[in-house]
Amino acid sequence: MTEISKPQAYKALSLAVLALVINFWAWTLLSPLGIRIANELHLSTSQLSFVLALPIIFGALGRIPLGILADRYGGRIILSLTSLLTAGAVAHLTFADSYNQMLLAAVLLGIGGASFSVGVPFVSAWFSSKQRGLMLGIYSMGNVGTALSALVTPTLSDNIGKLQTFWLVAFCLVALAVIFWVCAKDSPVWRPASLSARRSFGLAVNQRLTWDMSIVYALSFGAFVAFGVYLPVILKLSYDLSLTDAAARAGGFVLVATLARPFGGWLSDRIGARKVVKASLMFVAMLAGFVAFQQSLELHITVAYLSLAFVLGCCNGAVFAIVGKAAKAGSMGSVTGVVGAIGGIGGFLPPLLLGATYQYTHSFGWAYILLSIMSLVIFVYCTFCFRDKKLYAIV
To answer: How far apart (Å, rounded) are the C-alpha atoms in residues 302 and 331?
Structure first.
């Protein structure tokens, strides 16, 4: 049996987290500057919503081919190439001076979001099944890149300029690609998938696990991404905060949700991921309903928003604890890609819904009510699907 060095395993985990942080920073680069870009390009609320939603949908869809490629060629090669491609996407932003050019840039930025599906099989191969809930939760902390984007991007833009900020992020991505190529390596127990891309995809979509987790992740990660992308706009329009203040608060939401992911993974290792998923969904339903029509951002409302972030993060961590333990050998990247893609698509629709809701009602409340209802529906679904002891016995 091949022995895995713990220092090498933790080095691989650290590099994967770094890669996810910087790629996710690039992926959500437009969100903190959304109002500013809308003013410069004279975009309507709906047009801005579409620009902010495009990186999500293409980041989601891109997870399927990248997950398949990760199973076939390994995380070292694919994450290095992904970082270079994302650098090119960010560089294109410096030339985007029209609505159509901004749409193209938004599509290309999706590459950064798609990188997530590469890291899951890369990290999983370094750790035993009993450790994967926590370790994949730690890897998922790379989502803090979206918080980094919300917190740092407006300040950088104010101090060094918007275009210079884009060039700085592009440089970080190129440096990351070089570091990952030189320093990272695939686990000694990892073996490339022997199936063709088509058969790998078929193996993933024919597993019931894939669709059960996709349904849960569409809500939990979809809500996380939607809030990460659109919360600065919600806070500014609903509570009349400054752009910088709204972006900072949105960054806090993303940070809490991100830090909760390893806790959700750790808790899944201890008490079972099924319990974590169901409890999280129930709390999401209650908290979303509570904040729906609040008119002022008082302390208890802020606590409710942060609590919502925490339970969404726990649910996300639990989902990939299940995937990491229950996915069939040789298909983890493909399953991760499909689950991640559907989760990302779950984040594509809410910004459009939020924009339309505000445009016609001057409130975001009904969108929150829909989130609450959907959480309850999926809770009931999970209650039945988790009864399959053969599939979910290990989690």
So the answer is: 41
Residue 1: inside a domain: no
Rounded to whole angstroms, what are the CA distances from 40 to 34, 37, 276?
A: 10, 5, 44
Residue length of the chain: 395
| CB-neighbour burial class of residue 69 (10 A; exposed 0-12, middle 13-18, buried 19+) | buried
- Confirm whether 151 is domain-assigned: yes
Q: Is the pTM of this model over 0.85?
A: no
Q: Is residue 126 part of a domain?
A: yes
State residue 66's pLDDT score.
Answer: 92
Section 10-30 average pLDDT: 93
Whole-number average pLDDT of the chain: 86
* Conformation bin of residue 93: beta by default, left when phi > 0, alpha when psi is -120 to 50: alpha
Interhelix angle for 75-93 vs 99-114, to 10°?
160
Q: Residue 85: give the domain boundaries.
A: 6-392
pLDDT tens digits, residue range 137-180?
Answer: 899 888 788 778 877 898 898 889 888 999 999 999 999 999 99
* Contact by Cβ (8 Å): 94, 163: yes
Cα–Cα nearest to 256, from 176, 363, 146, 177 = 146
The CATH number for 142's domain is 1.20.1250.20
Tokens at 100, concatenated: 């159509």
Count of structural domains within the chain: 1
DSSP 3-state assignment of 391?
A: helix
pLDDT at 332 over 80: no
- DSSP string for 115-177: THHHHHHHHHTTS-GGGHHHHHHHHHGGGHHHHHHHHHHHHHHHHH-HHHHHHHHHHHHHHHH
Residue 4 DSSP code: P
